[in-house]
Amino acid sequence: MAKTIGNPASWTAHAMRETGSHVGASMEGIGSKDQTTAPLVRKLEFEDLTNALRAGFEDFMAARADVIFIALIYPLAGLVMITMGLSMNLIPLVVPMIMGFALLGPVAAVGLYEISRLREAGENPDWLDAFGIIRTPSFGGIVVLGLFLALLFIIWMIVAQFVYASTLGPEPPVSIAMFAHDVFTTSQGWAMIILGTGTGVIFAIVALATSLVSFPLLLDRQIGLPIAVVTSFRVLRKSPLVTVSWGLIVGVLLAAGSLPILLGLIVVLPVLGHATWHLYRKAVV
User: Fold this and answer.
1) How many CB atoms lie within 10 A of CB 16?
2) What keywords are assigned to this protein (predicted)?
3) CA dihedral 9, 14, 20, 26 (to 10 degrees)
4) Nearest to residue 91, comparing CAs of 173, 9, 181?
5) Any idea of the CA torsion for 19, 23, 29, 33, to the nearest 10 degrees?
6) Mean pLDDT in each 10-residue stretch from start to end of the chain (285 residues)?
7) How far apart are CA 141 and CA 244, in angstroms?
8) CA dist., res. 250 & res. 268, Å (int)
9) Distance from CA of residue 218 to its chain's centroid?
10) CB distance 33 to 144 below 8 Å
């Protein structure tokens, strides 16, 4: 029987059914993929970081109109969260919110990994191709790992609130100016800075170890989520100094991009996303 295009409503419903079936099948196979052994990992060198950043910038320049459209979602979501924080008298959580939002960076960059993968294959992708991640066999693992990072972000916000309540709180600040004064001129404020920074480093290391190469690996190969996470930990263990330096680079660049009301992330996020893909290529055989 010949196939017809049909009306937009029926086409949309059919596409949603196909996508739903694929997501369901992907979720069922999270821990059971064709590859059941962890891939080999290489020892990273510091020049691999600069090469990855250079290649990431080249990908950004080659597809900047498309990747900027994708990257806009990240700063816009951040601005919404900050606005909510200010309007809900959650001023002490604004800085932890900006810092913790970086935990979700690997999730926001998944579409960028796909664009880099397609360019590597000699194709000329546009921003719609970023949604091709939905069709990858390991999409279920990508979803679960993204949910884990979201949960990590929520836990970080709870911990940040506890740190504030234990130092400068529990009462909310009278104003932003008074809060800034108390933070930098009182012993309780410095205790909050030191304790909050130390705790944030722990969360950052957990996120780095878990997602360093997991998302690109799930996107690139038909592999289970546990193996992808184990591989990411093995990369960190094999090259601890280089990978921690990469985490610092990412943190510094994200912080710098956040300064002009998060708008710098429109450039920083795509470059880091593409660079992460190339670093994955260096790290995993």
Assistant:
1) 10
2) Membrane, Transmembrane, Transmembrane helix
3) -150
4) 173
5) 60
6) 43 42 44 64 93 91 63 62 62 80 79 83 70 76 91 92 89 83 90 92 91 90 89 93 92 79 76 91 91
7) 24
8) 9
9) 14
10) no
